[in-house]
Structures are given as structure tokens and as C-alpha cells.
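Predict fold of Esterase; 273 aa.
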Amino acid sequence: MSIVNELDYRVEGALFTSTCLKRDVILDFYLPTGVEDLSELSLLLINDGQDLQAMDFKTILSDRYSGGAIGPVLCAGITAGADRKREYGVAATTDYLGRGDRAGSYTTFIINELLPFIAEKYNVKTFRDKAFAGFSLGGLSALDIVWNHPEVFSKAAVFSGSLWWRSIDQDDPAYDDDKDRIMQQQIRNGAYAPGLKFFLQCGLLDEAQDRNNNGIIDAVDDTRDTVAELMKKGYQPEDLFYLELDEGKHDVATWGKAMPVFLEWSWPGGNQK
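Predicted 3D structure, encoded as C-alpha cells:
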């Protein structure tokens, strides 16, 4: 790979008509400049791509890329559709309110439509590696897709993820964290896949709920428990990055603070040891 001295990012918009989703999907591509051989690029897909402009994602990328903190990675922001709560979720099952019923179609869109479209658009037969990130419910979706497709993706990033996603209402007397949280159960009952890495972020101000009255908000409990399930499955400390922000909220500003940590952990550049 040959890189010229001027390192920056440019943004390219695209509109993709998805057969799986039966709608148009708005995409924003963040392309690093100065890369001659695009097959040396990594690829990062991001759910809720509509939040990236407010985050000033281009500046986050450009500053770290030009400064050598990260290597070149092509990023694709996927704008959520009107059926976000149906398309995002866990493909294998809906939650207790029936949400996520189109998550299977969304997964098919990602694997069978979006990835081939990106490969054709940028004339890249294969990327160095592929990762998927998302915020809130989009983070749950990204984790679900990576977990179930380790042959495609090598990293998942979950920012304030909806890891409370559950099969029955928490107010039901029969509700049990260990049995009824869908993603944690999927990890527990799934198979270890060598090579996968996971970045999980939450904030102490993500919410106020504390369903088990242990003095720790649910968002933190749910994220910590997901990390614990991954470790029980066999993933090592070097495979996991857990970021807990004391002042972190459930908002774009917080995710913008966490994003550089994820990028530098995932694709360290020349000034990283």
C-alpha cells in the first residue's frame, strides 16, 4: 500500500435501493485519501449513520488519520429507516413487544446487498478486515450480526447498547436477568469463534433505572454482564475493550468521546505501540 503525504477523509453520499428492506437506504461513506491499493483498507459499517454528522465523525477520523493514530479504514454510515425498531434487534427472535421482527431482513440486507454494493462501488474484492458498530438499539443490531457472522466480521462495537433487550416484560414476576435478556442468552448458548473482538461502551448517566436495586443502573449491569458472558465463552482480555464513562450519557456527544478510543484500539496507526 502506498500513501501520499496528504492524509484526510472525504465524504461521499449514496442511495441504495434494497430489495430485502423494500426501501431506499441512505449511505454516507468516509473514505481515507492517499490510499492507492484499496484492498489494504479495513471496512467499518455503522448503524444509525444519521448521527455521525452531529458527532463530527469526519473530523474525528481526519485528525487521527493525519496524526498517525489510526490506519486507513473505509467507514459506511447507514441511516436508519422509519422502521428502526423493527429492523434493529436480534434476528433470531423478537423482544417481548414484538420489536425486531425485521432484524432478519436487515441482516440479509447487510450481508447479501450492502457488502457486495460496497465492494463493487470501490472495486475491492476483499478488505483487510470488517467491523460493525452501532449506537443504542443500533449497537445491539451490530453485535447480533457480528456474533452470528464471524466468517464475515472480526469486530463489533456497541455504544450504549440496548443490551436490556428481553423476551418478557421486566415487570412480570417471572422475569429473570439470567434467562430473559436475549443477547446475553444468545452468547451463552452460542459457539466461540476465534478472532472476534468486541468493544463495549456505557455511561454511568446512560439512564436512571435500576431494576434489581443493586445501586448500579441497568445499562451498566447489562453491558458488564455481556462482557462477562463473552469471557465465559472464552474471549480473552485482549479480545475485549470495556469503556465505562463516569459522565457518559445516552447521547451523541458521549458516543463521540468514545469513538476515538474504539478507532485507536481497532486500527492503531504508526504512532501506536
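The domain at 9-266 is CATH 3.40.50.1820 (Rossmann fold).
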